[in-house]
């Protein structure tokens, strides 16, 4: 047996759960890669062969490359002024209703060309990668018309060519009602379903379709359904911003459409949680947005656990509700704010995040999967959840390189 490359003298957090060991730890381990995939994982002493390239890890910990399964990485401008307004007493919702919020980022993004969008997003992407992220999802949703939605998705695809990273795109045209359709959310939802979505799908620019179901500042269930039905016709999987600010039965709607994930879900009710678990819809927790908009209603983690729901954790990186380009910070917030265990939090940025993107070829250290690795100078995996604002990442490997 020959390998292209082996990593030796490492501690492995495989995320392949075993009885009594949800992290699947292998101390003094080794990993071998061939053709960009993991060919062998185990104890160093059992390694069956050597390779042309050998990396000594000096006791570092290796995890599957981290996966940020929910970001709005591509946008122009910032919303620091709104942050000030919120400190002066305005709410996230009141700002949105007054034409600020998402629509202020829409104005800035419409005015930016593709090169400007790439240039603005790249430093944010680099911060995520520096922490060990190897797969990232990027949404559109600040164009709200075909040209800009397309430009955002093209910018996202371009980023994937500029850095070693896997990038999945989601069309989020149903993020807010644009000024051209003010007062006519029905009309805009139809326009998304009949015009924007088919055009984007035909160009192969989206890997999935997302929406924002919210009875006050987003789309209602019927409007979301229109968009989801168009996604099915185009052969694209769906996901949903659901039950973020109130219980709108978004979780159940996502489950009914076999969504890959329902995200935020602070207000998801028991029936919605059960429906998600039954449908295999992953729950994506976004503690950074919860923190930044000072939400106080916690997601019902106990009910989610009891239902056997798979939970992912993501940054939701965006200018309005979470300007935090750090998935490691989300590990800490998932534990401190939502009381996730270390094993739950780490599964949330690895194997469950892979499931949230419909990817079965990553998220664990196991033979046959992509050789996407993140190396850390830590004494135990819990350190990744423990630190606030300290990045112990030593390096990344993407597809074996
Ligand atoms: O995931 N809920 C809607 N969308 C984003 C916020 C986007 C924004 O405020 O610009 C979210 O929190
Ligand atoms: Fe979001």
TrEMBL record:
<keyword id="KW-0369">Histidine metabolism</keyword>
<keyword id="KW-0408">Iron</keyword>
<keyword id="KW-0479">Metal-binding</keyword>
<feature type="binding site">
    <location>
        <position position="142"/>
    </location>
    <ligand>
        <name>4-imidazolone-5-propanoate</name>
    </ligand>
</feature>
<protein>
    <recommendedName>
        <fullName>Imidazolonepropionase</fullName>
        <ecNumber>3.5.2.7</ecNumber>
    </recommendedName>
</protein>
<feature type="binding site">
    <location>
        <position position="241"/>
    </location>
    <ligand>
        <name>Zn(2+)</name>
    </ligand>
</feature>
<feature type="binding site">
    <location>
        <position position="79"/>
    </location>
    <ligand>
        <name>4-imidazolone-5-propanoate</name>
    </ligand>
</feature>
<comment type="function">
    <text>Catalyzes the hydrolytic cleavage of the carbon-nitrogen bond in imidazolone-5-propanoate to yield N-formimidoyl-L-glutamate. It is the third step in the universal histidine degradation pathway.</text>
</comment>
<keyword id="KW-0963">Cytoplasm</keyword>
<dbReference type="Pfam" id="PF01979">
    <property type="entry name" value="Amidohydro_1"/>
</dbReference>
<feature type="binding site">
    <location>
        <position position="241"/>
    </location>
    <ligand>
        <name>Fe(3+)</name>
    </ligand>
</feature>
<feature type="binding site">
    <location>
        <position position="321"/>
    </location>
    <ligand>
        <name>4-imidazolone-5-propanoate</name>
    </ligand>
</feature>
<feature type="binding site">
    <location>
        <position position="318"/>
    </location>
    <ligand>
        <name>N-formimidoyl-L-glutamate</name>
    </ligand>
</feature>
<keyword id="KW-0862">Zinc</keyword>
<dbReference type="InterPro" id="IPR011059">
    <property type="entry name" value="Metal-dep_hydrolase_composite"/>
</dbReference>
<feature type="binding site">
    <location>
        <position position="316"/>
    </location>
    <ligand>
        <name>Zn(2+)</name>
    </ligand>
</feature>
<dbReference type="InterPro" id="IPR006680">
    <property type="entry name" value="Amidohydro-rel"/>
</dbReference>
<feature type="binding site">
    <location>
        <position position="320"/>
    </location>
    <ligand>
        <name>N-formimidoyl-L-glutamate</name>
    </ligand>
</feature>
<comment type="pathway">
    <text>Amino-acid degradation; L-histidine degradation into L-glutamate; N-formimidoyl-L-glutamate from L-histidine: step 3/3.</text>
</comment>
<feature type="binding site">
    <location>
        <position position="72"/>
    </location>
    <ligand>
        <name>Fe(3+)</name>
    </ligand>
</feature>
<dbReference type="InterPro" id="IPR005920">
    <property type="entry name" value="HutI"/>
</dbReference>
<feature type="binding site">
    <location>
        <position position="142"/>
    </location>
    <ligand>
        <name>N-formimidoyl-L-glutamate</name>
    </ligand>
</feature>
<feature type="domain" description="Amidohydrolase-related">
    <location>
        <begin position="61"/>
        <end position="375"/>
    </location>
</feature>
<dbReference type="GO" id="GO:0050480">
    <property type="term" value="F:imidazolonepropionase activity"/>
</dbReference>
<feature type="binding site">
    <location>
        <position position="175"/>
    </location>
    <ligand>
        <name>4-imidazolone-5-propanoate</name>
    </ligand>
</feature>
<comment type="similarity">
    <text>Belongs to the metallo-dependent hydrolases superfamily. HutI family.</text>
</comment>
<feature type="binding site">
    <location>
        <position position="70"/>
    </location>
    <ligand>
        <name>Zn(2+)</name>
    </ligand>
</feature>
<keyword id="KW-0378">Hydrolase</keyword>
<feature type="binding site">
    <location>
        <position position="244"/>
    </location>
    <ligand>
        <name>4-imidazolone-5-propanoate</name>
    </ligand>
</feature>
<dbReference type="InterPro" id="IPR032466">
    <property type="entry name" value="Metal_Hydrolase"/>
</dbReference>
<feature type="binding site">
    <location>
        <position position="316"/>
    </location>
    <ligand>
        <name>Fe(3+)</name>
    </ligand>
</feature>
<feature type="binding site">
    <location>
        <position position="72"/>
    </location>
    <ligand>
        <name>Zn(2+)</name>
    </ligand>
</feature>
<feature type="binding site">
    <location>
        <position position="70"/>
    </location>
    <ligand>
        <name>Fe(3+)</name>
    </ligand>
</feature>
């Amino acid at each position: 047996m020959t390998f292209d490359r082996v990593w030796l003298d490492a501690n492995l957090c495989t995320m392949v759960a075993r009885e009594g060991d949800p992290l699947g730890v292998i101390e003094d381990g080794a990993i071998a890669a061939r053709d960009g995939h993991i060919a062998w994982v185990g104890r160093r002493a059992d390694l069956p062969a050597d390779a042309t390239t050998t990396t000594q890890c000096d006791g570092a910990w290796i995890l599957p490359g981290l996966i940020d399964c929910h970001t709005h990485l591509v946008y122009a401008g910032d919303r620091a002024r709104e942050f000030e307004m919120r400190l002066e007493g305005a709410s996230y919702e009141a700002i949105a209703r007054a034409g600020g919020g998402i629509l202020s980022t829409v104005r800035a993004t419409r005015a930016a060309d593709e090169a400007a969008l790439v240039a603005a997003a790249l430093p944010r992407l680099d911060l995520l990668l520096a922490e060990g992220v190897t797969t990232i999802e990027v949404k559109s949703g600040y164009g709200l018309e075909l040209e800009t939605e397309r430009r955002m998705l093209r910018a996202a695809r371009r980023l994937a060519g500029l850095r070693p990273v896997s990038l999945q795109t989601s069309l989020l045209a149903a993020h807010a009602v644009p000024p051209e359709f003010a007062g006519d959310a029905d009309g805009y939802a139809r326009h998304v379903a009949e015009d924007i979505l088919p055009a984007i799908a035909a160009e192969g620019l989206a890997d999935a379709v997302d929406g924002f179901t919210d009875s006050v500042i987003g789309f209602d269930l019927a409007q979301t359904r229109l968009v989801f039905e168009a996604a099915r016709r185009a052969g694209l999987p769906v996901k949903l911003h659901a039950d973020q600010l109130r219980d709108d039965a978004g979780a159940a709607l996502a489950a009914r459409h076999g969504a890959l994930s329902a995200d935020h879900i602070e207000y998801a009710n028991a029936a919605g949680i059960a429906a998600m678990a039954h449908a295999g819809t992953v729950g994506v927790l976004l503690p950074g947005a919860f923190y930044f908009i000072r939400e106080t209603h916690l997601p019902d983690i106990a009910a989610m656990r009891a239902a056997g729901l798979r939970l992912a954790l993501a940054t939701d990186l965006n200018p309005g509700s979470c300007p935090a380009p750090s998935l490691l910070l989300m590990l800490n917030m998932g534990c401190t704010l939502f009381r996730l265990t270390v094993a739950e939090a780490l599964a949330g940025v690895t194997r469950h995040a892979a499931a949230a993107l419909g990817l079965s070829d990553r998220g664990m250290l196991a033979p046959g999967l992509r050789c996407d690795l993140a190396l850390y100078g830590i004494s135990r995996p819990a350190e990744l959840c423990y630190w606030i604002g300290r990045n112990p990442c030593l390096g990344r490997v993407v597809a074996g390189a």
